Amino acid sequence: MAIPIAMLDCDLLLYGRGHRTLDRFKLDDVTDEYLVSTYGFPRQFICYLVDLLGNNLTRPTQRSRAISPETQILAALGFYTSGSFQTRMGDAIGISQASMSRCVSNVTDALVERASQFIHFPMEKRARQQLKDEFYGLAGLPGVLGVLDCTHVAIKAPNAEDLSYVNCKGVHSLNCMMVCDARGLLLNVETQWPGSLQDNVLLQQSVLNTQFESEMHKDGWLLADSAFFLRTWLMTPLHGPETPAENRYNIAHSATHSVIEQTFQAIRSRFRCLDGTKGTLQYSPEKCSHIILACCVLYNIALEQGLDLCYSPTIGSAEQPEEAYEQMESLDSEAYCTRQELILTHFS
């Protein structure tokens, strides 16, 4: 009786039953140096992910050789950190390119499910005060809960008619808004916005905006650059500072806000699938958004575990669109007064 082709195991067709797979190949058989060079992370980190995601990645199957959680995680890490489904990557762990793709999807979904566990503002009073103290230690700006900015990640064109993902450089992208603390740990990430959306408009439509406008985080403010409008909870730099105090404020603002740019560079350096050097992400906008978010979750986990996430200036330096914007900060008199009081109190 003929076997329906959909029922066939593509790995079995490609490699046969005798092919060596990582289900038979233990992490203990290789060095940390090999794991870091091939998959971007050491053994301890990979084992932590297996414990964290194992239940999500173990599913009932009729296949004779279900792919283990360990193998799925290695496949996904290989893609995230290299940016491509290379044949040698699949060969190294004994699975086909099609299975590599399924593994990336499975691990991405499992990480996205845990995004709120690893990416969030602290709510405890002591932890929030620590946030402000660490930012104050950078350049003397008080009351800072996080630094905010947007970055673009190139994606394939969804279709010829949809221009909403075309950014000001003519590239299809997702515009991703992120907030980090003084260490670079991500506190808020929104990755689903089309590339044509300007940063300030994106913020107006975001969950983050709703939270701060409703005074959920009323004990401090965020810092943003001049692509955003000044608000009572969002401090931006002054244009044409006229006094020594205003100059000192701008210098402190720039030094503090630079943390988010360093964070973007560290993420792109660690996760080459996002940096554009291997081409655009070849998925739907929704799936691309999930891959970006999954990488952000991994970034936070790695940072919390003390891994070195320093970036190389020659990697992950994909050119970002520079947006034209019109300053309207003077229309918000309360925000203007808040910033002036901050300048007079702390920089005079």
Keywords:
348 residues; globular; alpha/beta; 9% strand; disordered N terminus; 2 domains
Structure commentary:
Helix 4 (about 70-80) packs across helix 6 (about 95-115). The chain is globular. A 5-stranded mixed beta sheet has the order 3-2-1-4-5, sandwiched between helices. Helices cover about 45% and strands about 10% of the residues. It is of the alpha/beta class and about 350 residues long. It has helices spanning about 10-15, 30-40, 45-55, 70-80, 85-95, 95-115, 115-120, 125-140, 200-205, 205-215, 245-270, 285-305, 335-345, and strands spanning about 145-155, 175-180, 185-195, 220-225, 235. The longest helix has 27 residues, at about 245-270. It has 13 helices and 5 strands. It folds into 2 domains: about 5-115, no CATH class; about 115-345, no CATH class.
Any low-confidence stretches, pLDDT <50, length ≥5? 1-24, 312-319
> In the residues, how many domains can be counted?
2
Query: Termini separation (Å)?
Result: 87 Å
Strand order of the largest sheet: 3-2-1-4-5
Helix fraction bin: 40-55%
How confident overall, as mean pLDDT? 84
Please outline the major beta sheet.
5 strands, mixed
Order of helices and strands, N to C? Answer: HHHHHHHHEEEHHEEHHH
Domain DDE Tnp4: 148-300
Subcellular location: Cytoplasm; Nucleus
InterPro entries: HARBI1-like, HARBI1_animal, HARBI1_dom
Cofactor: a divalent metal cation
What is the gist of this entry?
The chain is of the alpha/beta class and 348 residues long.
List the helices and strands and how they pair.
Blueprint (H helix, E strand, L loop, with lengths): L9 H6 L16 H8 L3 H15 L11 H14 L4 H7 L3 H17 L1 H4 L6 H15 L4 E11 L18 E8 L5 E9 L4 H7 L1 H7 L7 E3 L10 E2 L8 H27 L14 H20 L28 H14 L2
Parallel strand pairs: 1-4, 4-5
Antiparallel strand pairs: 1-2, 2-3
